[in-house]
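Our preliminary data section would be incomplete without showing what the modeling component actually yields. Below, a chain of 241 amino acids is followed by its predicted structure, encoded as tokens that our downstream tools consume directly.
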Amino acid sequence: MDTVQEYLQSLEGGGKKLLSEFLGYMDENYPQLKPVMFRQRPMYKTGKSYVYFTVAKEHFSVHTLNFELIERLKQTLATADFGKGCVKVRFADEGAVPVLKRLCDDIVSLNISDNPPEPGFVPDLPYGQKLRNTFKGSKAKWLPLYTELLERVKPLLPEFTEYFPAVNVLWKHKSTFAQISAVSSAMRIELYFDTLRAERKPLKTLQTSKNRTAHVFEVTDNSNFGEISEWIVESYELTRN
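Predicted structure:
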């Protein structure tokens, strides 16, 4: 098949639906990147890496040369299958879709520049610049809220690291126990609990393993920071053990 549309039309069912959704997502968010056919599958080249989609009988896959981004997802997508530069999910795994879209964002953000880094390289920017890169544009208004939450949590936990992969912040000990990101309307906090905690009113949840469920919360002010700080401690202890 010579074109993306020919490949898309050759599919059916869940594979066609997912590929169509991801092609639309890339075209809407990154119109400067045009898909090309590589081994009869659609690929978006970005710097020295790529976002490459494939569809199998029951699985949808995203491939890249940014292996560290794939490695990071192993804590989030426990039901997925992984290769060195590939993550593969079942068509029915709807909870994986936003995670894979974030992966696409991270790949593009890391590589789209006049002088893209080698795959796997994350530039060591000053701390303030990393924060501004994460909370930029319409998201900048949430930076003071992030700083306040960070200062509340620091006295409650042993030392941990803020890691800036691309468009979010990971709070890590040996593993990630919190993930902070922002959209124009809110700041989002992703935490891990040992079971579903619907009473905490998460925006969404994803069971990542038998005893771990990711919960995403949205905040627009500090009114719930007391209980959220307690939940962060809970997530820290769960992921450490």
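Residues 114-123 have pLDDT under 50 and may be disordered. The chain is about 35% helix and 25% strand. Preliminary results of this kind motivate Aim 1 of the renewal.
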